Amino acid sequence: MNGMSDRVKRDSKHPGKQEAGSAGDARRDRWRKHRIARRAEFVEAALRALDEHGPDLGMEHVAAAAGVTKPVLYRHFEDKADLYLALGQRGTEILFQRLIPAINAELAPVPRIRMALDAFFTVIEEHPNLYRLLARGTFQDKPVDADVVAEDKEVIATALTALLGDYMRMFDMDSGAAEPWAYGIVGMVQNTGEWWLEKRTMSRDSVVEYLTQIIWAAIDGLCRQRGIVIDPDQPLDENKVVKLADRKTERTGDPA
Are 116 and 103 in contact (CB under 8 A)? Predict the structure, then answer.
């Protein structure tokens, strides 16, 4: 007991040490938040540079768009690959912010499919060079040990597998087909998107409508084989939703 009392007395004699520690923690927290916000600003600048220079942009283009020098930029990104990954994270955020609400809309089957496809094609139309950069997997001729597009494809296909499986079980169908079906749909949409970005032989609305009809025809055909008829323009009795699993850890570039 005497030892504890002595420690309490010693602490009470030096309150400044505790206050200094709290102040130091607060300063570190403010600095960490500042670096995260600054890094986010540079990512937005990189998106602007992509619009202007295309996927062959260099760090000097990003620095110019941000109004800083390259050494300042490198204080917040370890290297070109680090910036590439930050752009990938931002691209994923933009895509999922549009795509997930569309997929989960409480709509009839065909309008729901159409809305989800429109969300994807709208994003790649608004950010074509970002998609090209991420799909190419290199930044200024430097290979990157990450495939952001493939990772997003995996997340979406996994979520779509669960969604299709829920519906198939609801109709007493074999849900084993949900996974290959989901990967087939995601692959078709991705490949069509890449083709459309390069060719632009039709409008976004047209390619979305064609894909909507193709996907619905497959769903409708499979259901009818099993004696199930679904009205494409009437919401289903139960609205199943997509739930995304945890993605890769957010990369903030904030040092420990």
Answer: yes
